[in-house]
Design brief:
This protein is mainly α. About 65% of the residues lie in helices and about 10% in strands. The protein has 2 helices and 2 strands, in the order ββαα. The chain has a two-stranded antiparallel sheet. Strand 1 and strand 2 form a beta hairpin. The chain is elongated and about 45 Å long. The protein starts with a strand and ends with a helix. Pfam families: DUF1656. InterPro entries: DUF1656.
């Protein structure tokens, strides 16, 4: 069961916190793939980044859904 997160008196949906955590995980990976020029070899780099974000977000939601 997901419960709201209290940040400075403002209740925030747990999904927003999970989205922020996924962004924190994906950003260094995206920067690393850009640094090694892996994104230039992909057909659609934006689509790759979106898929990476969705996969990461899904894993975070599944993890916290099973272990509250």
């Amino acid at each position: 069961m997901f419960t709201e997160v209290d940040i400075l008196g403002v209740l925030i949906s747990p999904f927003v916190v999970m989205m922020f955590a996924a962004w924190l995980v994906v950003t260094p990976i995206t920067m690393a793939t850009a640094r090694v020029r892996l994104l230039g070899r992909m057909w659609h780099p934006g689509l790759f980044n979106l898929c990476l974000y969705v996969i990461t977000l899904s894993l975070i939601v599944i993890h916290f859904g099973e272990h509250p």
